[in-house]
Amino acid sequence: MIPLVLAAIFFVGIHFVISGSRLRDTLVARLGESRFRAGFGLLSLLGLVWLAQAYRAAPYIETWGQLGWFKPVALLLILPAFVFATLGMTTANPTAVGGAAPMEQTAQGVLRITRHPFLWGVALWAATHLIANGDAASLVLFGALLLLAVGGTYSIDDKRLRLYGEAWEKYLLATSNLPFLAIIQRRNILALKEIGWRRPALALVLYLAMLHFHKGLFGVSPLF
């Protein structure tokens, strides 16, 4: 279990300590944006591989155990997780790596719902697996990913605020981090036509494919 904890600390730590702090600004100034991204991308890949291998090797230590009643709930929660993640990956977003400056793009489509759709998809996916698995290794792995996803939304906003200043403040006022908050507060509107049907359809296909291949890939069926 110790290797898994160390891997989780490393993976989360490099994002918050290096990428999510002013240390990033210093490194970018010295190395350049492209070199920093390449180096940090390599570190992230190594951390992710370490995390995955440590999780596979970790012993099974039951916490609350697998909850049979939660399986249908998990199926319902994972679908919007796929939708958020897919929309986030296929929508131009100033919060993404290399994204356009906020003054060059208005909040449209899923960005009216949240300016961090991909990370909220990951957060919902991680939280669902954390609850569903009910063991110590899953608590460490999915807890770390949940922390990184939710904390990452604030870290990205801070980085963009340092970079764009007043332009980002205006973007913050027009959008929300928490899904649907800006719409509820009438700072934005829900425009489903801007999202279209192709992206949600792709999310549904990916969701169904994962249900089909989940047991073969991970040894556990989400259906029964």
**Poorly predicted ranges (pLDDT <50, ≥5 residues)?**
none
The main sheet comes to: none
Shape: globular
Question: What is the mean predicted local confidence, pLDDT?
Answer: 91
SSE pattern: HHHHHHHHHH
Q: Indicate the multimeric state.
A: single chain
The first-to-last residue Cα distance is 28 Å
User: What number of domains?
Assistant: 2
Give me the secondary-structure category: mainly alpha
Tally of separate helices? 10
What helical percentage do the residues reach?
A: over 70%
Strand content: under 5%
Radius of gyration from the alpha-carbon trace, in angstroms:
19 Å
**Strand segment tally:** 0
Keyword list:
single chain, 224 residues, mainly alpha, 2 domains, NnrU_dom, transmembrane
Write a structural description:
Keywords: Membrane, Transmembrane, Transmembrane helix. It holds the Pfam family NnrU. It is found in: Membrane. The chain crosses the membrane at residues 35-52, 73-93, 113-132, 139-156, 196-214. Its main location: membrane. By secondary structure, the protein is an all-alpha fold. The protein folds into two domains: 1-58; 63-218, no CATH class. 71% of the residues lie in helices and 0% in strands. The protein is built from ten helices and no strands. α1 (2-19) runs antiparallel to α3 (33-57), α4 (70-90) packs antiparallel against α5 and α5 runs antiparallel to α6. It is globular, with a radius of gyration of 19 Å. The protein starts with a helix and ends in a 6-residue tail after the last helix. The model has no long low-confidence stretch (mean pLDDT 91).
